[in-house]
Amino acid sequence: MKRAALLFFLIVLIGGGLLAADAWRFFSTPLANQSGQLITVEPGMSFRAISKRLVDDGIMVKPRDARYLSLYARATGTASRIKAGEYVVPARQTPAHLVELLVSGKTRQYRMTLVEGWRFREFRQLIADSDALDHRLTGKSDEQLMAAIGHPGEMPEGRFMPDTYLYPRGMTDIDFLKRAYDAMQQYLDKAWAERSDETAVDTPYQALILASIVEKETAVPAERTRIAGVFTRRLKKGMLLQTDPTVIYGIENYDGNIRRADLRRDTPYNTYTRPGLPPTPIAMPSRESIHAALHPDAGTALYFVSRGDGSHVFSDTLAEHNRAVDKYQRGS
């Protein structure tokens, strides 16, 4: 920075003392903005145009300051290294620090949280609502979307990691989804390699399916491995899973109520009528639920019922389970 400043002033000094004094005033005085201010550098934008925008936006006060900044950027070789994007210019920065910021590429970051337990359609809606993303997938089917991110033929449900993501304005929705897909795949690969011998699933995709059921069955973190243990033992014994969230996933236009007729109506997702796991995940599972599916609790329970407060009562036998259902579900 000191060498660059010295070079800048040597060039300005050639132009005369008064010009040098004014340049010194510009270079040593903080910029005019009193708080963080946003500036957008468009792709292919010249540094002269950037400097003019800084004046127009009030970050620099005098029009001739734009010329000084352009001269400094050319003299230091930074004019050609400016990166496009949105930048938040901190208050009271010097011009040299401003140029450093524009060269660094440290653009403004937007935040989006993909919530664990959501369905993919909810992810799609959240992404579609972002005005900072460049939308390339609008109107595309799920099949077309998966092809666009490089995974044709795969179902999207369960394939994207719930997490909070930072991204710059202008990132495409395709690239955003690739990040979430890759995050899930990387975690799943690692978790699968470290799986317990007790797990009942045979493939990483089956682990996603089981994890998604665990995700929807409990909001209590400490219960995840116990829930996974129940389902693991049922799978090994050939028992029906009989889990309501899978039934709900298979109901078109679900209205919030699950009825006896729904439990009897056969669909690919009705685990009261069909053995084994459903054909796809039913939600986006968290890391914790994936871990639970691959490290199930080694207990003996085969049943559980909600207490109504988010937690569950676990039972080894059907008789115990029915008593728990009477107490917590039927109030008898």
Please provide a written account of the structure.
- With 332 residues, this protein is mainly alpha-helical.
- The chain folds into three domains: 2-104, Endolytic murein transglycosylase (Dna Ligase, domain 1, 2-Layer Sandwich); 109-191, no CATH class; 196-299, no CATH class.
- 46% of the residues lie in helices and 9% in strands.
- The chain is built from 14 helices and six strands.
- It has helices at residues 2-14, 17-28, 47-56, 63-76, 95-104, 120-128, 142-148, 173-193, 204-217, 224-237, 244-249, 260-264, 287-294, 318-328; strands at residues 37-41, 85-89, 109-114, 163-168, 303-306, 312-315.
- The strands form three sheets. A two-stranded antiparallel sheet has the order 1-2. Strands 3-4 form a two-stranded antiparallel ribbon. The protein has a two-stranded antiparallel ribbon with strand order 5-6.
- Strand 5 and strand 6 (312-315) form a beta hairpin.
- Helix 9 (204-217) crosses helix 10 (224-237) and helix 9 (204-217) crosses helix 13 (287-294).
- It is elongated and about 95 Å long.
- The relative contact order is 0.09.
- The mean pLDDT is 90.
Which secondary structure elements does this structure contain, and how are they paired or packed?
Elements: H1 2-14, H2 17-28, E1 37-41, H3 47-56, H4 63-76, E2 85-89, H5 95-104, E3 109-114, H6 120-128, H7 142-148, E4 163-168, H8 173-193, H9 204-217, H10 224-237, H11 244-249, H12 260-264, H13 287-294, E5 303-306, E6 312-315, H14 318-328
Antiparallel strand pairs: 1-2, 3-4, 5-6
